[in-house]
Amino acid sequence: MPEENGVVTPLYGEPFDSGLALAEEHQLAADITASVAVYEELLTLAESLDDSPDVRFLRAHLLANIASVQLTATDLAAAEDANSRSRALLDGIASAPMGPRGRQLWLEMVLRTLIARADLLRRTGRLDEALACLDEAAVTLPEFDDRDGLRASELGLNRVHVLMDRGEWGAAEEQASGLLSTTPETAVETIPRLLVALGVICSSTGRFDAAEDCFARAEDRFRAMGDTGQQRSLLAHRAYTAMHRGELDLAERLFAEASAFFEEQRWFADLAVCEQARAFLAGRRGDAAGAEELLAASLARFERLGASIAAADTMLLGAQHAYDRGDIDEMKRLAQAARDVYQEREVYERCAQVDLMLARTLEDNLNRTDHGDRERESVDNALSLALPSALALEAARFDFATAHARSQWLRLADDAMRLVFRLVMRRQDQGLLFELAEHRCAGASLALHRTPPSGPLEDPASVFPNAAMKSHGHYEDTDGTMTLGGVAAEAAASVGLRVAPPPKVRMSAQPGPGRVALQEYIAAAEFRYHRPIVHEEEVPFWITDDLTSRPVVQIRLADAGDLFMTWTWAGGARGFGTGQGPAAEVDRAVAALADALPGAGDGAEGMRRAFGTGALAEHGSERRLARLLAEALWPEGLTAQIRQVSERAGRPLVRIQPSPRVAQVPWEILAVDDEDVRLVDLADVVTTAPASLRPRNPAPTTAQGTATGPVVLVLDPRVPGFRADSPLGSVLGPPGTDPELLALVQRRLDAGAVIPSLATPAEAFRRTDLDRDWLSGVLRAGARRLLYVGHVSGAPVEGGQSEDGTLHLSCDAGTVGLAEPLRTHRPLSAKDLLLGSLPLRADGEPGASIWPAPARVALIGCESGGDLRFAESFGLATAMLHNGAELVTATRWVLPTSFAFHRLAQLPDAVRPLTEAIVAVDTAHEDDDPVGSLSAWQREQLDRWRADGRIEHSPLLWAAMTSIVV
Q1: How does residue 450 score in pLDDT terms, banded at 50, 70 and 90?
Q2: Which terminus, N or C, of the chain has the lesser number of Cβ atoms within 10 Å?
Q3: Neighbouring-strand partners of residue 465
Q4: The whole model's pTM is what?
Q5: What single DSSP character describes residue 709?
C-alpha cells in the first residue's frame, strides 16, 4: 500500500486517480449511470492486474465506491453485492504487512463499508442489524485517525437515520442537533445531510417553518458542492412538508417534479416514496382509481427493493383506501400485514398508528351503521385500540429535548385523544372520563436527572451522545467548578427543559394501594408499544387533608376538541359530575374574552383598546361577556350543587384546574344565571396546578419558620439599562409618592422583620441591589413570604415554552443565567428557577436549592400566572410551587398600571387601582385564609362595579388576580 513520505502523491497512479475524480464528477452531476460505468471500467482494469494486497485494496476501494453510488440510485441489490465483495477483500488483507498510513487507509475503507452496510440494512427495514453494524463501526473508529471527525459525524448521521425510521423523533432530533453543533465545516457532505435529516424531523413533527429553514441551508451547501442530485432530491422533502402543512396543490406539483427526476435517474426507492405520497393526494381529491394505481406501483417497487418498512407504509395507506371503497376484508389484510412488519422491525410508533387507524374505522362504522345490542361491544373494541395508542403517541413527546418540539408533537397527537374522548362519551362512561381527565391534568414531570450531570461526564471522545444528554453536547470539566462562558454559556442558555411522563394518579385521596387512573389502558400501551406512559411515582388525584373544615369541589378541565369537565366534592359534601362544552361555543367565548383583554404582544395599543372598546371596560358589555363565558364553560348542574352546599354548609371553595385553552378565563366573574349572580358570589375560587408540580423533596426549612420569618419585599426594582419611562421602567411611579404603598411597607415593618433592611418605607422602592444573588441569599436564609411587584415578561404561547417567562430584577448583563440579556440587563427566567445552575456548572445546583420559595408568594406583574396556558406548566408561578411554595398569587393577563388608568381613563392621580390590588394581595397573604380574603376583596370590587360601573372597579384589573395551589 502507498506509504506516507512527506510528499503529496497520487494514491494509485493513472488511470485510476483521474478515473476516480471523473466518476465523482458524474455522481455530483446526478449522472449515476456514467459514474457506475467509470467505476466498473476501473474495476475491470484492476482485476487484470497481478494479485497483491495493494491491488486487492484498490478493488475494495472501487467496489465501495460502486456500492455508494448504487445506494444513491437505490439499487439496493447491486449495492449490497458490491459492499459485500469490498468487505471480503478488506478482510482478506487485514493481516497483510502495511505501514501506518496504509493501516489508516485500510481502517477508513472498513469504516466506509460498515457505514454503507448499515445504510443498506436500514433501507431494507433491518434496523437492529443496522444498529449492530454501526456499533461495530464505533468500536473500530478509535483506532482510526479521524482528525476532522468526518467518519464520526457520518457514523452519527446514520444512527440518526435509524432512529428516524423507528419513529423515535425526539432522540433523532437530539442526536442530529448535537452532531450538527460539533461536526467540523470540513465535513462538506455530512453537514447538509444532517440539515436534511433535521428538516424531515421538524416536518414530521409539525414544525414546518423550521423544516424549510433546514432545507434551505442544506440546499445552499449542496449547491456549493455542485451536487445537483441532492439539490433535486430536496423537492420531495419540500413536497412532504407542503402536504403536511395542508398546501396540497403545491405538494402535488413538487412531488410530480421530483418523481420525474427520480424516474429519469432510476432512483426507484425515492420514486416509490413519491408515488406513495401522490396516492394519498389522489385519494384526497377523490381520484380513487389514480390512488390505487399509484399505491400498486409504490408497493411493487418497495417489495422489489426489499424495503419492508416503506412497503408497510404503502400497505397501511392502501388499507385506508380499501376501507373507503368498502372492502373491509382487504383493509384488515393490509393493515395486519403492515402491523406485522412494524412489530417485527420494532417500529412501535407505527404499530400505534395502525391501531389508531383501525379504531377510527370502527368509529366510522359505528356512525354509519346500527350495531344494536352489540354497540357497547363495538365501542369497547374501538377504545381498546384507540386509548393505548393515543397514550403512546402522546408519551412520545417526552423524547424531545425542548418544550416547543413537544408542544408541536402534541398537536399531531391531539387528534388521537379527541377520538378517545368521543368514544368515552359514546360509551357514557363517567368513571373512565374522570380517569382520562385526571391523567391528562396530572402534567409532565420535570426531569432534573436528565440535565447535564454534576458528577463525572462522559468520555468526550464518545461518538454518540446518549438520550439523556442535552443537544448542546459535552461540557469541558476542568476543575469541576468552572462556569461556562462565551459560546458554551449561550448553548447552555438555549437548552430546554427535559420532562418525564406524568405520575400515576391514584383515584383515592387516601394513602395506600388503590386504583390508578387508566391502569388497564396504560399497561396495554406500555406492553404493546414499549414506551413508558407514566412515572413510577404515585400521587392521589387530590389531597383533602387540610380541606375538611369546609365544603370544597375540585374541577378539572381537559381539551380534546370539545372542552370536558369533571368535578368531585369533599370536605363534608359528597357528589360528582361531568360536563362537555362544544368546541365551537367554547372557542367563541374564549375569543370574545381575548378581544376584551390587553394582549401580551400588543403593547400600549392593546391596553388602549382594552380601556376603550374592550368588553371589560363597560358594565353592560362585561355582563354579557360573563354570561357568554358561563353558558359555554359552566354546567348548570354544578351551579345547582354549589347553591345546595352553600345553603347547608356555608360558602364552598371551588378549586379549578383549567385546560390551556381556558386558562385566562376569570372564573370569578362567570354569570351563572340570568340574574347576574357571579360564581364569586357563591364561592371562593382558587386555581390548581398539575399534580406533577408537588415538590418531591421539599426545600429544607431553616431556623426561621414560615410563621416567624421575614417578609421579602421586591417592589418595583430598577432594571439596569432602562429609564423610569421606558418599557421596563417604573411600575409604581416615583418612590414616596403613593401613601397607600408607603403605609403597606410600614405595616410590614411594624409587624416584624422585613428584607431588605429599611430605614424608611420609601427605601423599599426602585432599589438597585435586588438581583438574583441577593434573592437567593434571603430565600436560603428563610422567609415566610415573598411579595414581588414589577415587570414580568411572559413567553409566547405559540412557542410552547412556558419556562421562558422572566422576572426583571436588578441583574446586569454580566450575571450568569439562562435567559438572553436585554441591553445591560439579564432577566431571571422560570428556567433559572427550575434548573438553577445545573446546565451551567459541573457542580451545579437545582433551582429549588438556590431559590427555595417561601410558603406564600405573590408575583404581581403582567401575566405572571400565564403558565397554565401551556401544555407544560413550567412558568414563573408554577416554578415557585415546584420550589416549595404552597400558594402563589399571580395574574392571568397583562395588568394595567395606575398610570394607565390615569392616562387612558382620565382617573385623577389620587385614584390608584393597582395599589389597591397590591394592598389586597398583601393583606390576603397575612390572613389565615388567603384565598377567602382575596375572594372577599374581589366580591367587594364586583359590588362596586355593579353599583357605579366606574372603570377603577372593573374586572379588567381585579379579575386578573388568582391564587394558585397544587
Answers
A1: low
A2: N
A3: none
A4: 0.85
A5: S
Cβ atoms 466, 458 nearer than 8 A? yes
SS3 591: helix
Q: Is the pLDDT of residue 3 over 90?
A: no
Task: Please write down the HEC assignment for all residues of 48-84.
Answer: CCCCCHHHHHHHHHHHHHHHHHHHHCCCHHHHHHHHH
Q: Is 721 left (phi over 0), alpha (psi -120 to 50) or beta?
A: left
Cβ neighbours of residue 404 closer than 8 Å, sequence gap 6 or more: 207, 496, 799, 800, 801
Given a cut of 90, whether residue 343 has pLDDT beyond it is: yes
Amino acid 926: pLDDT: 97
Q: Is the dihedral of CA 388, 393, 399, 402 positive or negative?
A: negative
Amino acid at 811: C
Q: Which residues of 636-654 are buried (b: 16+ CB within 10 A; e: fewer)?
A: eebbebbbebbeeeebbbb
Tell me which residue of 269, 314, 318 sits closest to 292, measured CA to CA: 318
The whole-number average pLDDT for the span 432-450 is: 88
831 close to 803: Cβ distance less than 8 angstroms: yes
Q: 689-728 in b/e burial notation, b at 16+ Cβ within 10 A?
A: bbbbbbbeeebeeeeeeeeebbbbbbbbbbbbebeeeeeb
* DSSP track, 175-237: HHHHHHHHS-TT-TTHHHHHHHHHHHHHHHTT-HHHHHHHHHHHHHHHHHHT-HHHHHHHHHH
CA nearest neighbour of 898 among 770, 738, 787: 738
The number of CA neighbours under 13 Å toward the Cβ of 445 is 24
Stretch (H or E) spanning 480:
none
Using CA atoms, how far apart are residues 198 and 189, in angstroms rounded to an integer? 15
Secondary structure (3-state) at 438: helix
User: H-helix or E-strand containing 536?
Assistant: strand 535-540
Cα–Cα distance measured from residue 656 to residue 637, given in angstroms and rounded to the nearest whole number? 16
Per-residue confidence (pLDDT) for residue 840, from 0 to 100 = 87
**Region for 695 from its dihedrals, namely left if φ exceeds 0, alpha if ψ lies in -120 to 50, beta otherwise:** beta
CA distance 39 to 62: 6
Q: Which residues neighbour 535 within 8 Å (Cβ) at sequence distance 6 or greater?
A: 445, 500, 501, 502, 503, 504, 692
